[in-house]
Inverse folding.
């Protein structure tokens, strides 16, 4: 691929999104886009985030006006919920969702792919899911949704999470690998080695990245969270910065990038700002989860805390994003539980987004 072609792919979708914002809001396009993931499309949800100054969002892949509470502790991962491959998106449904969001003055910048269990587990019919992924990438390109986030994991170690409290009774989520260390494999998932998963990942990327390049879409792989080596006999292939560095080498393209999660990076015992400089200088950060943790044992035991209370230097991270010219979304993907909060966790998200916007202004001033 020529460098000129890469530059075109790199900027086309972002320029389109920026033009949409400028046209609707009459405001200067920010480099760092503090945004929010949407779980529903209700007036209350969309209007609330707009009032907080959010303009860029992660769009859902299904149309729903019903608010849903997000639990502090994630549900136990028991493998595929149904024995069916990933299905292609309904293009008309996504256009309807996008139109609804844009009607509120918001710009969709990313969408979640959904889990590709057949690919990750190496099942004989994995090709069916790969074709669905290709179709979804093309649809995202047609609708000018610049980024698709995905996970590559057969089973997440979610049973290691628990609930605890902090100052004033705030609800916090902690993780301790000792809770899961002796759990056996699941019959419906089986055991999968690191070598097997990396071989499957290599084949997956070589199949879908050319489609993403042609569609002007970037893929962002989220690191394994929790970043433990193995869970119930299943290796966690993207659990370190070394793994993420190897990922971007498999297929050398801006369309093959990462979700830089400041929380997960800190869970690994790494310097998140330095990680931003490494991947950002190579233009391989395609999405950002911006949160903080307090680490007791890197990789194995930590506490998720409010943005201002952890081990990660959040201002240094925001300055690093400015330094490397990062132009996509930065979202607070988790929030603690505040007493008497709304079903949409508006207290938690208001604190998080206010804090992120303050850091953004400090970094850009």
């Amino acid at each position: 691929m020529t460098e000129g072609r890469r530059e075109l792919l790199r900027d086309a979708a972002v320029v389109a999104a920026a033009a949409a914002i400028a046209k609707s809001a009459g405001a200067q396009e920010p480099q760092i886009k503090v945004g929010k993931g949407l779980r529903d499309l209700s007036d209350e949800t969309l209007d609330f985030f707009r009032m907080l100054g959010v303009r860029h969002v992660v769009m859902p892949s299904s149309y729903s006006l019903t608010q849903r509470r997000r639990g502090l502790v994630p549900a136990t991962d028991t493998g595929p919920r149904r024995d069916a491959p990933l299905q292609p998106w309904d293009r008309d449904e996504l256009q309807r969702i996008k139109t609804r969001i844009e009607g509120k003055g918001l710009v969709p910048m990313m969408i979640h792919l959904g889990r590709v269990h057949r690919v990750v587990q190496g099942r004989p019919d994995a090709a069916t899911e790969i074709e669905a992924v290709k179709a979804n990438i093309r649809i995202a390109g047609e609708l000018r949704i610049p980024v698709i986030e995905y996970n590559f994991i057969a089973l997440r170690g979610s049973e290691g999470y628990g609930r605890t409290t902090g100052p004033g009774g705030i609800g916090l989520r902690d993780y301790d690998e000792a809770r899961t260390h002796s759990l056996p494999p699941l019959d419906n998932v089986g055991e999968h080695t690191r070598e097997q998963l990396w071989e499957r990942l290599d084949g997956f990327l070589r199949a879908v990245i050319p489609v993403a390049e042609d569609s002007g879409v970037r893929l962002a792989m989220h690191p394994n969270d929790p970043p433990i080596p193995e869970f119930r006999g299943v290796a966690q292939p993207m659990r370190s910065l070394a793994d993420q560095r190897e990922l971007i080498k498999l297929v050398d393209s801006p369309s093959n990038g990462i979700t830089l999660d400041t929380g997960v990076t800190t869970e690994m015992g790494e310097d998140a700002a330095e990680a931003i400089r490494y991947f950002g200088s190579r233009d391989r950060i395609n999405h950002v989860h911006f949160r903080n943790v307090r680490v007791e044992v890197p990789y194995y035991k930590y506490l998720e805390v409010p943005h201002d209370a952890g081990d990660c230097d959040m201002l240094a991270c925001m300055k690093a994003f400015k330094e490397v010219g990062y132009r996509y979304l930065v979202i607070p993907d988790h929030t603690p539980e505040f007493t008497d909060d709304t079903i949409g966790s508006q207290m938690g998200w208001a604190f998080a987004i206010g804090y992120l916007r303050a850091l953004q202004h400090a970094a850009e001033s």
Summary: Residues 3-70+82-348 form a domain with the TIM Barrel fold (CATH 3.20.20.150). Confidence is low (pLDDT under 50) at residues 1-25. The radius of gyration is 19 Å. The longest helix spans residues 3-25.
